[in-house]
Design a protein that fits this description.
six-stranded mixed sheet, Rossmann fold, four-stranded antiparallel sheet, globular, alpha/beta
Length: about 270
């Protein structure tokens, strides 16, 4: 897969080929944490989650706070292990860290070493992804140019605003031309131009056959970008499928909105 360098049209891009493989799979996954205070009880972060994310699709993960979204990401990125069940990442168990070099990740609050410059940070993370220096030398300048950081490339990122750090996070996530891009609240701090850049990136990844997992509370991004979504509430999976399925209803209910449907799902008592 080529690294993303050129912006594309803002129009939706459909997958160029039929979905052929499973990029991410959660099979009956549960995660329980011990209570930190007395450890006399446990906290169920996710409960019996089963879902598949196909290669070549943009998959949204939505839900209220404390629904279990962050835990699923941690499980996918090998930051913790499930109490039960299995997580597969790019065809291999998540415990097999060999596939992490093919993953890009953007967190809502970047925690980069502040003494790095933008160019130095991309070189550092590229090396962690086992990319040769010659490849990094070709990829870094166009990425910095695309995300509007070329004129600040050798400045310590301690001077960067939150929006600039988020743009740098997007560039860092693309340095290894990932097959799987995980975006956790990626629009946090981005201006209108930055949000459009993000949408362009997501559409390009999909057009090239890659997979995007998007976690966001911004419903417009879900509606514009996602092929399917999963709704988590109270650590359980409440719905999975295309956004259009959620909006289906009686012909008289033409004003049905995604926000309204999600509020109804969030309020529904546990089965």
């Amino acid at each position: 897969m080529t690294v993303l360098l050129q912006p594309t049209s803002t129009a939706a891009v459909a997958p160029s080929a039929p979905l052929r493989a499973v990029a991410v799979e959660f099979s009956n996954v549960s995660k329980t944490y011990p209570d930190r205070l007395f450890r006399l009880r446990s906290v169920q972060a996710v409960r019996d989650i089963s879902l598949q994310i196909q290669a070549g699709e943009v998959f949204g993960l939505v839900g209220p706070n404390r629904a279990g979204k962050t835990t699923l990401i941690k499980l996918l990125l090998s930051l913790c292990r499930p109490t039960s069940g299995q997580v597969l990442r790019l065809g291999k168990p998540a415990a097999d860290r060999s596939t992490l070099a093919q993953v890009g990740y953007v967190h809502e609050n970047q925690a980069f070493p502040r003494y790095h410059s933008a160019a130095g940070l991309l070189e550092y993370y590229g090396a962690l992804s086992l990319l040769p220096y010659e490849v990094l030398r070709e990829r870094i300048p166009p990425l910095l140019e695309r995300f509007g950081l070329a004129d600040r490339s050798h400045e310590p990122i301690a001077r960067f605003s939150k929006g600039m750090l988020q743009r740098l996070g997007l560039a860092q996530a693309l340095i290894n031309a990932p097959k799987l891009l995980v975006l956790d609240e990626p629009t946090e701090g981005l201006d209108l131009v930055g949000r459009q850049l993000l949408r362009d990136v997501v559409r390009e990844i999909r057009a090239q056959g890659g997979t995007v997992l998007l976690v966001t509370h911004v419903l417009s991004e879900i509606e514009q970008l996602c092929d399917r979504i999963a709704v988590l509430v109270n650590s359980e999976l409440r719905h999975i499928g295309p956004v259009a399925e959620l909006l289906q209803g009686p012909a008289s209910d033409k004003a049905k909105s995604l926000e309204r449907v999600l509020k109804e799902l969030y309020a529904r008592p546990r089965a």
